[in-house]
Structure to design on (583 residues):
């Protein structure tokens, strides 16, 4: 269909009656481009010149030489009219979908070389007796496409580029734990060391001392310290007392409300500080009597944060990445119509010229968890399912993803609805469930992971801890997930507080520390599309393809299904495309 080759219904019927017609079609498209007399019109004489001996023999049996020549002359005579129609169609932006029919062969669409896309779409403007006969005899699926008023050529530039993909971080196969005390200790120890190492990279903290050395001081003195927040509480006067700990001991820090700007800034930071976060404190140490009331009167507090002077990586190629999550295939609330529009958009079947160009730049799709709805994830889920078998959910997902053009690479990270453990970090979905997806070329990874595409690094985290953060920090709310993502970056951790609703597996390595600063930070889980930036890092919560369930309603979540997030890798500029109305 995208080869741009004109063909008569009778000749099309002839090709479809060949043995293995899809394979023959690919051979015909490839070989005909090397024939000098070929001008975009497939005729019997062109078929007779192909290198494939089987096709040549059948052509000679079916058509006599004189008929072939007359057919070629007739089509050449009408070449000017066809060219004129093509030029006019290129400028059309009409998106209406009518009942014009073309042969639906996904292999034909996706495996055609880019050189074959220079001509207009093959269009059959009305169903003839021949096409009706073909539907009955060959059982070929016929589906609608854009009307003749919108025949602009879809030539995806992404098809011209090879994949440049590397998985820089993936916990799959490295999550060993027995769940005993030593595992919990090793996790906390590793988290502390990783966060302290990140804090030590800041020049102003080089003079920070450990807590034990500060407690040995006998006089009031200016000190600085790095520590993890053990507890935090607010006093009656509105001040805050933090208990900090490091590997040498614990110490109290008082952050006071004051009239100075720095005092107010300190309070704002403390108000968004949770237990288990790493902070840096400057202040005056007061040893107190017999050191029992030792305290630091803090005058400056900061978190690890992300440097403001970083320059993000950008691609040299004009390609894009589409970020989605939470499709929940198998759920009654799965938005199948929006998914169909997504597939039509990727294949250039809908949208104006600009939108089709944007679709043609997409080289990668990252699915950030909850591809399927799963089984037994929450109470009463059974009543919300239309596919109640986990294997059938994945089979359906494989079928749906197969409609995505094969020049687009799909990366699929696990979420809390997948058949893996609920505690984070999670491994990739096991092959016994995802085997069909893997065979189709989908790359399955764990969560969190870092994916590098054409030099651009995307941190992929499903976002399980977003709900905890929103409940614990004043001002954060579910409908603005980007603000919560900023807090993750400030404390350089994806689940800063331990022991709340977010389940964290006690592994010896803390996979949730944000050691490497990403260029794109991608979350999901909350079912609300949002986009923003922080210190030049692009932040995306990718929304969903599921309408509101009773369970989401109980959490006060009002989803925004069908909003597609597209990131240009060469500029790191993001676009939110509403599939309900924009295309």
């Amino acid at each position: 269909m995208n080869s741009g080759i004109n063909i008569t219904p009778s000749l099309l019927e002839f090709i479809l009656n060949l043995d293995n017609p899809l394979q023959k079609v690919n051979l015909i498209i490839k070989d005909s481009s090397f024939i000098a007399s070929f001008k975009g019109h497939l005729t019997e004489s062109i078929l007779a010149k192909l290198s494939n001996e089987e096709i040549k023999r059948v052509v000679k049996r079916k058509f006599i030489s004189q008929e072939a020549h007359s057919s070629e002359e007739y089509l050449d005579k009408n070449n000017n009219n066809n060219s004129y129609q093509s030029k006019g169609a290129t400028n059309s932006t009409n998106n209406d979908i009518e009942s014009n029919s073309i042969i639906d062969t996904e292999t034909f669409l996706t495996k055609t070389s880019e050189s074959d896309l220079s001509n207009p779409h093959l269009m059959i403007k009305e169903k003839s007796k021949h096409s009706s006969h073909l539907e009955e005899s060959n059982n070929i699926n016929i589906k609608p496409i854009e009307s003749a008023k919108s025949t602009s050529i879809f030539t995806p530039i992404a098809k011209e580029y090879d994949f440049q993909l590397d998985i820089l971080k993936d916990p799959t196969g490295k999550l060993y734990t027995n769940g005993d005390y030593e595992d919990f200790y090793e996790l906390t120890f590793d988290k502390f060391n990783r966060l302290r190492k990140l804090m030590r990279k800041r020049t102003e903290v080089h003079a920070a001392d450990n807590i034990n050395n500060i407690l040995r001081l006998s006089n009031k003195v200016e000190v600085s310290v790095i520590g993890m927040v053990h507890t935090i509480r607010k006093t009656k006067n509105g001040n805050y007392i933090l208990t900090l700990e490091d590997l040498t001991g614990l110490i109290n820090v008082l952050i006071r409300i004051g009239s100075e700007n720095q005092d107010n800034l300190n309070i704002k930071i403390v108000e968004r500080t949770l237990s288990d976060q790493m902070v840096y404190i400057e202040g005056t140490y007061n040893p107190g009597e017999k050191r029992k009331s030792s305290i630091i009167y803090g005058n400056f507090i900061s978190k690890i944060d992300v440097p403001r002077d970083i320059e993000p990586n950008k691609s040299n190629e004009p390609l894009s990445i589409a970020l989605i999550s939470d499709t929940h295939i198998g759920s009654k609330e799965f938005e199948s119509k929006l998914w169909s529009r997504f597939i039509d958009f990727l294949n250039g079947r809908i949208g104006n010229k600009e939108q089709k160009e944007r679709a043609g730049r997409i080289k990668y799709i990252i699915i950030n968890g909850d591809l399927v709805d799963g089984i037994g994830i929450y109470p009463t889920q059974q009543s919300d399912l239309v596919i109640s078998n986990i294997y059938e959910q994945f089979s359906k997902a494989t079928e749906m993803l197969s409609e995505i053009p094969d020049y687009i690479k799909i990366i699929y990270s696990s979420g809390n609805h997948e058949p893996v453990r609920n505690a984070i970090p999670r491994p990739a979905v096991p092959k016994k469930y995802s085997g069909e997806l893997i065979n189709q070329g989908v790359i399955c990874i764990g969560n969190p992971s870092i994916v590098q595409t054409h030099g651009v690094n995307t941190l992929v985290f499903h976002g399980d801890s977003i709900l905890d953060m929103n409940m614990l920090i004043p001002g954060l709310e579910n409908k603005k997930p980007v603000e919560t993502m900023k807090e993750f970056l400030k404390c350089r951790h994806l689940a800063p507080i331990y022991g709340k609703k977010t389940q964290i597996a006690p592994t010896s390595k803390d996979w949730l520390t944000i050691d490497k600063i990403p260029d794109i930070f991608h979350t999901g889980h909350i079912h609300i599309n949002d986009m923003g930036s922080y210190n030049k890092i692009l932040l995306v919560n990718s929304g969903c393809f599921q309408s509101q369930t009773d369970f989401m309603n109980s959490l006060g979540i009002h989803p925004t299904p069908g909003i597609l997030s597209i990131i240009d890798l060469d500029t790191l500029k993001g676009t939110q495309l509403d599939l309900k109305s924009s295309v």
Notes: The radius of gyration is 30 Å. The CA atoms of residues 203 and 540 lie 30 Å apart.
